[in-house]
Amino acid sequence: MVKLTIVGRVSEGLPLAQGPRYVNNEENESFSLYKQQGELILKEISRGALPHPKMTIRVDHQYCFIYLVENGIACIALSDSSYPRKLVFHYLQDLQKELQKFDSSLVEKITRPYSFVGFDSVIGNIRKQYIDTRTQANLSKLNANRKQDLDIVTENLTEILSRRRNSVLHEITSSSPSSTPRPVSSIWGSPRLEVIAVKWTPITIILVVLVVVSWASLIMADSIVISSLY
Question: What is the annotated signal peptide range for this record (predicted)?
């Protein structure tokens, strides 16, 4: 059974609608976590880390995420692991078909998360059609095109989280100035000495010139005084 549905725009990973919740009191405690995981999957789709147009993502022994991307919109569903995956994909396809009935310009104007409230009721109505897997319509869907199940990529959520964590760490280290070691100067022996030398060498040169000029002036003055005595 589908427990959670998130419909989002792929271009910036913005969740547009989510539909009603279908969890009991025990599941409600972990519902927020599953919702955050669904939003993370949407972000990963948006940034191209999940390039497949449809995919199954195993969360744990109890649940899995299944998503379908069409026309720049991602429909993501959290369902029981025991629920037929093929029916979940049919469910997501029905959502995509309903989305096409809406004005695309209207959908593009949405800027706030989950503000496409007009689609929440659509999600609820379509979900009701997939509660009972033994209806004639659902049995027909299960028996048709069985080879399509082989085309679905499956991955664990832990692997996706690991790649995301490594990507963030790489971005941090790449942007940090201290992450790129400066080459050691062959003249000064260390970057620190080179900085000191660059800072103080011009000042030192100026002071030396002033001392030399002053010394030369004193010598010339003494020479003039001595010559005048003779």
Answer: none
Residues 59 and 101 in one domain: yes
Distance CA 48, CA 68 (A): 14
Same domain, 214 and 120: no
Burial profile 145-174: b = 16 or more Cβ within 10 angstroms, e = fewer: eeeeeeeeeeeebeebeeeeeeeeeeeeee
Strand extents, DSSP E, 88-211: 153-156
CA distances from 112 to 15, 93, 104 (A): 8, 24, 16
Structural domain total, the chain: 2
For helices 25-46 and 157-175, angle between their N-to-C axes, nearest 10 degrees:
50
Is 132 in the same domain as 18? yes
pLDDT along the chain (230 residues), means of 10: 94 92 66 92 96 94 95 95 94 96 90 94 94 94 73 91 90 70 48 52 70 66 53
DSSP 111: -
> Which residue range(s) make up the domain with 89?
2-159
